[in-house]
Design goal:
homodimer, Arc Repressor Mutant, subunit A, Tetracycline Repressor, domain 2
């Protein structure tokens, strides 16, 4: 079992390297096997296609990211600070830039949608926990934390995805600013308590900003 | 020009019939030409692939739907009634059931995402107009109607799409109910003024409910 896991890891590491190097488009299972340093037959023992390798790589990367997010509700800080920490972890960031960009290629839309749905389903319970804590602390008001969390995470995942909507700097800032207001009002939070979502310096410190703001 | 337009319409009509009949999977350009009653060469004069025909069919169907929605802000009724009318038109519905189901097949995810993005971009300005009217009537409060509209339409398009998230009856009702509350609070609307969104009888009267509630 240990060995099997190692070979799978080798294949996924190879796929990750190929995507990072910008060589994933048109690359064959043969080439993946070569980079992994194993035979093509071995690759086909674990995966039926390149697409399956790619999806599994996204699941693996994703698992690490969700784990980092899951730690946030368990820390000893206030709910509003946890909201900021989750926002930061989410955009600093889920997948890393090269995996993110690869996902946004037109031919990878099928994979993209699956990853976004998985993202929403994984992050919703984490945000819900934080909302519940905010209610207990008396800084938020919300009777249906699971559903509210689900709605908010949906907006983060889809509306701010550069692979779905073309965004420019001003539009992104305006949308984030409006969304901060929607969330503050919906949660009856103190006005300005989510202002980090529209703080340009804070946003520029996040890795995702290089995509949002077309920095290099 | 007239003739060209007619041939294109024949091709799209054929594609629509094939999808309605449940025969679109694996159907070839040859078969589309046969149903359209024209030569295969003629089809290739207008379209490079079956995918292009399908996309164009969605654009055409979509155009009619968006037009029906665009008429709503121009009517003589109150803003809150227009919100209900838009909701009803949206779910009663954008594409028709067979086109909707076809879009939700795993192999059509690329097309699905394009259609959803187009949906959000088309409906946002319509909802924004209605929000502005509500502000003028003094029943809504909102400084950024374009952005608020964009956020709300994003939730409608993605979170309630059975092709992205698996929904059951209770989850759908809970989510719609929570979303009505999020919107009411975010827009400072009277409590209960969006209660049609959680009214089961009203929802069951919409064509989309047969997908949401797994009727039929």
């Amino acid at each position: 079992m240990g060995k099997r896991k190692d070979k799978k890891a080798l294949i996924l590491d190879a796929m990750e390297k190929i995507i990072s190097d910008g060589n994933a488009e048109g690359c064959s299972v043969d080439e993946i096997a070569k980079v992994a340093g194993i035979g093509k037959g071995s690759v086909y023992y674990y995966y039926r296609s390149k697409r399956e390798i790619e999806m599994d790589l996204y699941f693996r990367t994703f698992g690490g990211f969700v784990e980092r997010c899951q730690n946030i509700p368990e820390t000893e800080i206030k709910a509003m600070e946890k909201l900021k920490a989750l926002f930061k972890t989410y955009y600093d960031q889920a997948l890393g830039l090269s995996l993110d960009s690869y996902l946004h290629l037109p031919q990878n839309m099928d994979m993209h949608q699956k990853v976004l749905a998985l993202l929403v389903e994984s992050i919703t319970p984490i945000l819900s926990k934080i909302l519940k804590q905010g209610v207990e602390e008396g800084v938020l008001d919300c009777d249906a934390p699971d559903e509210f969390a689900n709605i908010f995470v949906c907006v983060f995942a889809f509306l701010f995805d550069p692979g779905i909507f073309t965004l420019n700097v001003d539009e992104t800032l305006n949308k984030l600013s409006a969304f901060a207001e929607v969330m503050e009002r919906a949660l009856k939070a103190k006005k300005g308590s989510l202002s980090f979502m529209r703080d340009k310096d804070f946003l520029l410190s996040l890795k995702k900003s290089s995509i949002w703001f077309q920095l290099d």
